[in-house]
Fold this protein.
Amino acid sequence: IPQGGVVPSIDVVVIRSYPVLFRAQDSAGSVSILTEREEASAVEKHQRQCQELVERLSTELSQEANQAVAEEQPGAVLKMKSCSSPGRVYAELSVADRRAVDGWEHREREIRSGVLGSHLSGRAELTRRSRPFKIYLVRDLVPGNRQRTGSDAIFTVWGEAARGASLEEGSALRIRNLSPGSSLHSNLPALAATDATKISIIEMGSFYHDAEPRRVASLREVATSVFLGAAVDVDVVAIVVRSVDGTRGRVVYLSDGAELLL
């Protein structure tokens, strides 16, 4: 599959359904993979930074904005501002001047917004791109009752479809029109959904698969080399005993009540 072409159709069973993640790219071009909580925090931080930039530029550009407003300010508006009886002056204005006065407040906001917008346009720090995706671990469905181990692959759904996707673990699927993808699991082939991809639920009765349902492992099992060699991922329920920041990252001590694992 890697480096290959479009995959017309495959029948698979969903082994694992992982949480929605986000591929985020900041203004410097740095790419990071974020959880939903991290993405929400990053969006909030970015919006706050953008607002701070807008407020700072608004202050710095006040003189330029005032000049632009003064250059376009109608004479009737200036006359009303400089007299002690603006109501009397307004009553004596022509229809066209009254129209200019009535619309000036809105026009002034447009001018100030235009000055600010011209300085904000193209600012790299305002740019942030983020795209959700959801990863599934899938396995071949074998026609009939032939008991052989199916091959595993990583199946990725991108975009807003990832948020709406609800392919449950254990579901049998027929997936049409796939493209080769990329995966952090370098030892597994990767497939990605495209705009043309169609997914349908199929009956499991006419197929065989050797996939085991998700179960919680003990820390003792996780610590055995045999278990680690056979596992793609591990599900444990444990208590964080201690968390320590080290030179190579954070070290977390876990306990499930019977074992302690670093």
Summary: The chain has nine helices and twelve strands. The first strand starts at residue 7 and ends at 17.
